[in-house]
Each structure stands twice: as structure tokens, then as C-alpha cells.
Amino acid sequence: MKKLAIFSILALFVFACGESQSREDRLAKAFPEKAEAQKKDDGKGIGEITSVTLNNPLDAKMVENGKAIYELKCAACHKLTDQRVVGPGWAGLTDKRKPEWIMNMITNVEIMLEEDKVANDLLKECLVRMPNQNISITDARDILEFIYQNDLDFAASQGE
Ligand code: HEC
Fold first, then answer.
1. Which of 43, 68, 49, 36 has its CA nearest to residue 149?
2. 17 pLDDT exceeds 90?
3. What tens digit of pLDDT does each residue of 73-86 get?
4. Of 5, 26, 69, 83, most Cβ neighbours within 10 A?
5. Ligand 1 centre and the CA of 126: distance in Å?
6. From atom 17 of ligand 1, which residue's Cα is the shortest distance away?
């Protein structure tokens, strides 16, 4: 009981001081492991996906399925060009992000928006939370294949 009281006082103290600190500092104090993980951010995002093996050439069947899901569940907010609608356009995505990051963004969006620096910055820019649509890992992998195909097509259309 005594310990609890001391802890409460300490907690009060920490929060009282928190006012003048940045959000990052407060988070780093409250969750040291997370802060550590963020420091050595490997660009793969946060979630189940730690390693993706890419296909070369791309798998046409996967591209086709990925495209169908895109049209149904993503096209309302994402264009295939580099133009932003609600969310960022997808052209150039595979140059900017690692495949693991893209798949974690699709399958673990809530956590990514909160804890991944890049995703969190996008949220601040777009001001709309991308919804979780319960995309399976298999479907997310097919969407990723389509995203790679889209980048090939987009580069070709730009005469690159
Ligand atoms: C209601 C609109 C909406 C829908 C539907 C949506 N997204 Fe998003 N998406 C966003 C927004 C907005 C962002 C930017 C982060 C944020 O603000 O949440 C984003 C970000 C992303 C990013 C990161 C883009 C970048 O430039 O790094 C990926 C990848 C992505 N979405 C994939 C998908 C996929 C795949 C689907 C369909 C299964 C989908 N999104 C459906 C709104 C949406």
C-alpha cells in the first residue's frame, strides 16, 4: 500500500513536469523500450511482417488479385498516380518505403499510425485516419505485388 502511494506521488510528479516537455520526451520516459525501438528504426514499420521476399518478375495472378482488392477497398482514397486524394497517391511508393513497411501499414494500421514515425507524420499531414479493413496477410501481399506493378507502369508512363 505504501509503495503504491509513493508510486502515485512519483507519477503525479512525472505528469506535472510533463507539461513543459515535448510529446516525444514524455513518451520516451513512459515507454523506454518503445523509444529504444524507434531510435533504431529499420524502416520496416511495426507489425507481424519482418521480412518479404520480392518476386522478379512480378506474379501476374497476385497482381490481378491485388488490383481487384485495390479497386474495392482502397481506390476511394488512393490514386495510382502521385496525386493525393484522401490518402497519398501510390506512385513511387516502392522507392519511398520498404515492402515490410507497406505490408505492416496495410495489416496493422492503428499501431502504425500511433507508433511508426513515418506513418504518424503522414497522419498529421492528411488529417484522416486510414481505416483498418481487416486485410489478411495473403491479400496484403497481393496488394504489395500490385503496388510494385503500378510503380513499373507509372515509371513507363513517365518515359523512364
Ligand atoms: C478512407 C480512406 C482510406 C482508405 C479506404 C484506405 N486508405 Fe490507405 N491511407 C489513407 C490515409 C489518410 C493515409 C495516410 C495516413 C493517415 O492519415 O492515416 C493512408 C496511407 C496509406 C499507405 C502509406 C502511403 C505512403 O505514402 O506511405 C498505404 C501503403 C496505404 N494507405 C494502403 C492502403 C490500402 C492497401 C488500402 C486498401 C486495402 C487503403 N490504404 C485504404 C486513407 C485510406
1. 68
2. no
3. 999 999 999 999 99
4. 69
5. 10
6. 123
Atom in ligand 1 nearest the alpha carbon of residue 102: 29
- Using alpha carbons, list the distances in angstroms from residue 144 to 2, 33, 82, 98: 54, 30, 16, 11
Q: Kindly state if the Cβ of 29 falls inside 6 Å of ligand 1.
A: no
Q: What angle do CA 39, 141, 145 make, to 5 degrees?
A: 105
Determine the pLDDT at residue 24.
65
Say which residue, 160 or 11, is predicted with more confidence.
Answer: 160
CA of 16 to the centre of ligand 1 (A): 36
Can you give the pLDDT at residue 37?
Answer: 59
Residue whose C-alpha is closest to residue 66's, from 132, 141, 135: 141
From the alpha carbon of 140, which atom of ligand 1 is closest? 35
Predicted confidence (pLDDT) at residue 96 exceeds the cutoff of 90: yes
